[in-house]
Amino acid sequence: MEMTKEELNDIIERHGKWIYGEEGGVLADLSGEDLSGADLSGANLKGAILSGADLSGVDLSGADLSGAYLKKANLIDADLRLANLSGANLIGANLSRATISRANLSGANLSDVYLRSADLREADINGVDLRGADLFGVIIDKYMYQITGCGSFNTTTTYDAVNNQVIWGCWICDDGNTLENFKKKIEDIYGENG
User: Fold this and answer.
1) 49-58, 63-72, 92-101, 120-129: segment of lowest average pLDDT
2) How far apart are CA 120 and CA 109, in angstroms?
3) Please, what sign has the CA dihedral across residues 37, 40, 41, 45?
4) What is the pLDDT of residues 103-121, one digit of tens each?
5) In the predicted model, is pLDDT for residue 148 greater than 80?
6) How far apart, in Å, are the Cα atoms of 96 and each of 66, 72, 100, 111, 137?
């Protein structure tokens, strides 16, 4: 059964009380809920649990989702402009075609996230974990560079110059996914002229 707008507003109101330690406050657990198309602009969902929720087409512009748990959530076509997603767990979430421009993603875990054709312009991505993320067709700022059709799996390789981080399939280097370590890995696989 789909959640009504009134029920959702009540959950968000009680969550706000929970954030501030007020009487009647309850942590918002919206995991697995169908919230597609909902207007959650400006909502305070700090620390909320939204794992597996369907948030496709939802308006989360200006919302505070810092520390929220969004593992495997569906955020296709979601509007996340100016949203605060700092420290959020988005492992395996689907953010294809989402508008994430000017959002705060600092310290967020976006590993294995599907970001195809998402708009990340002017987003704060300092300290973001993008290991294994699908970044094909992402609209990015001038400090990120992409090469498509790489390697034996014909994938996209992205270099984030802000964090000196190479995102290449599920490659994880113990010393960090830096450009220098990426070069070493390529030389180990293909030789010096690889």
Assistant:
1) 120-129
2) 15
3) negative
4) 999 889 998 999 999 999 9
5) no
6) 20, 13, 10, 14, 10
Is the distance from CB of 94 to CB of 116 less than 8 angstroms?
no
The span from the CA of 150 to the CA of 146, in Å, is 10
The tens digit of pLDDT for each residue in 8-26 reads 999 999 999 999 999 999 9
User: What is the rounded distance in angstroms from the CA atom of residue 62 to the CA atom of residue 70?
Assistant: 17
Number of other CB atoms surrounding residue 134 within 10 Å: 21
State how far the Cα of 105 lies from the Cα of 100, in Å rounded to an integer.
Answer: 9
d(CA 139, CA 69): 25
Q: CA angle, 168 as apex, 163 and 170 as ends, to 5°?
A: 110
pLDDT of residue 140: 80
pTM exceeding 0.90: no
Q: Assign residue 157 a region: left if phi > 0, alpha if psi is -120 to 50, beta otherwise?
A: beta
Integer CA distances (angstroms), 98 to 77, 177, 194, in order? 4, 25, 35
SS3 113: coil
